Amino acid sequence: MATKKKPENYASLDKPVIEAVVNELFRFETPKQAVDQLEAIRSSFITSREQTEDNKVSVRLWIKGYALTEDEIKEGYLGHFATIRYKEVKGKKIALYAEKDNVPLKTHPQKKRQKARHPNWGHPILRGVKKKKTYKTIEEAQKQIQLLHEEFPEVSIPCTHKMYVMIYQRGPEGSNDGPPVQKWVLNIKVDEHGGYYLEAEVNKNPRKRKNAEAPAITAQDGEAAPAPDAPLGKFTAAIELKRAKKKKK
Questions:
Q1: Which stretch of 3-17, 142-156, 162-176, 203-217 has the lowest confidence by average pLDDT?
Q2: Rounded to whole angstroms, how far apart are CA atoms 100 and 84?
Q3: What is the number of helices (H) and of strands (E) in the chain?
Q4: Buried b / exposed e across 1-34, counting CB within 10 Å, b at 16+?
C-alpha cells in the first residue's frame, strides 16, 4: 500500500478554499459535508503540530496573509495560526469559519527576515543546501543561485552553475574560532538518484587547494535529507549538466 504523501505547502489567502473559509462563504446541508471539507483542507496544506481537542471536527493551521494588522506587518508577521471549525448559520445551513490564534512571532513557520548584509545558514535556500534538496532541472537549481544573489548582491558573485558568496556563521558559544564571515562556493552537482542539488564548499586559496580538500556541507544532526523527486537519472543529469556548460562557453 502506497504511503500517503504529506502536504508541502502552507495555506494562504490566495487559495480559493481558504478564501471561502475565512469569509464564511461555504454552505453545506449537513455537518458531515463540512467535516469532509475539513479533511480535504487537512490533506492539502501543512497543519500545526498542536491541534485542538476536537480535531476530528476542526483543523489548526498557519495561513499566510491572514488577519494581519499594520503593526504586525511592521513587526515581521506574514500570517497567523487559525483553527477552522463549522457552525450552523441562517437557513439551517452549515458554514466553515476560522478563529485567529495569537501566538508569538518566533513560533511562526514563516516570518519576514531582518535585512542583513550577509546570508546565514538559516536562510531558506542555504537550509536547502544543507539538506541536499534536489531540483528537477539545471534551470531550477540555477534560479536558487540567482535569487540568493539578488537578495545579497554586495557579497555574492553569480556564475554559470556556481556562485561565490560570503556567509555569516556563528561559532560555538563562547568560542572565537574562525571568522564570523567566511567565503563559500555553491556548485550545482548531479544527484546520484537523478536531478541536481547545490553543494557548498569553503572557498580556500587556490594555491592551497591541491593539498586540502574543501569540506562539503551535509544535513545537520537530526535533519533528514529529503528524498529526491527528479525525473532524470544520474547519467542523464550528468550529460545535461555537461551540455549546459559547453553551451554557455
A1: 203-217
A2: 9
A3: 6, 9
A4: eeeeeeeeebbbbebeebeebbeeebebeeeeeb
